[in-house]
Structure formats: structure tokens, C-alpha cells
Amino acid sequence: MSEFKNLFQNTHKIGMPFTIHAGGECGSAQNIIDSVEAGAGRIGHGIAMRGHSDLIKELAGKGIGIEMCPISNLQTKAVAGPEEYPIREFLNGGLKVTVNTDNRTVSDTTMTKELEFIQNTYGIQDDEIYLLMKNAADVAFATDSVKDKLYRMMGGSLWRISIYTKCYRFSSSENKEKECGNYV
Known about the structure:
By secondary structure, the chain is α/β, with parallel strands linked by helices. The chain has one domain: Alpha-Beta Barrel (TIM Barrel), CATH 3.20.20.140. It contains eleven helices and four strands, in the order αβαβαβααβαααααα. The protein has a four-stranded parallel β-sheet. Helix 2 links the parallel strand 1 (19-22) and strand 2 (42-45).
């Protein structure tokens, strides 16, 4: 990170938003701190923040997005196992957590699989799925008018997300995404 800090600081000065992958497999909370100091609006992964309540509080206060990729992070051993994955800690700490696929084809995942995984593994509720989607809009590198449009679209989507996740969770179909896709 130190080799690129000036580049990121200059990018931030000209108003260009960026994400830095920090605190994933490297396990360094300092890497996250350096990334935020360099002007990152979002942190990719951020796993090393686990257990650092002061850092969580600071980033929550700044509204920094945390792009979590649960399936990929477990596959790459960013944490030893599902029980160590900090999504619940981060949500409870008020971070702007988003859920992402990271490397969709390598991890053989989709957003549907990621969301089903966090609901089944961490007890994430439908209203929290909605919060994750709202967080994604909040930290999107988009204009306010685009974000406003996203918020309006999400306003009518909460009930559809709820029905979709219930359908997906309880469907016995081999092609759940196709069967339940009518709800989104």
C-alpha cells in the first residue's frame, strides 16, 4: 500500500472515488487504516477489521463501504471457517456492509447464492438483506440522482425480496433461481 499511497491521495484530491482491497487475506488492520487515509470510499473485504471495535466505529462514522464476499473469503481462507466470518459483527457495528460475489466464475457463486448463504449461515433476516442493498446504493460511485432512483426502486422491492428469499429457501426445485425469479 505504501508504494501507492500518493497515487490514491492524488486521485482522491481530484474527486475520483475508488475502492481499495484491504484487510482481506493479508490480515492487516493497518492496511485498512492506510486505505481510508488515502481516501478510499469503499474497502474490499476488510476482514482484518474483525475484533477492532475502534476501527469499526471510525469507518461506520465515516460511512465507508465494506464490500464483503462471503463465499470467496471462505474459499481463500481469509478466515479459518464460517464461525470467524465477521459479517454479523460488522452489521452490528453500523458499517455500510454490502455483499458481493468477488470472483463469480472462480467461486461458482451468484448474488442469490451469497444471500442464501449468509441467511442460512449467519441468520441474516430479510430486512437486513434490504439494508445490505440500501448500503450498496449508499456507497455506490453514482450521482445523487442515480442513487435516488435506486432508493425509489428499492422502496417497492422489500416485499419482493422477502418473498423471493422465502421461495428460494423452501423450494425443492433444482433450478431455484428460475422458479423464484418471478418475484424479483
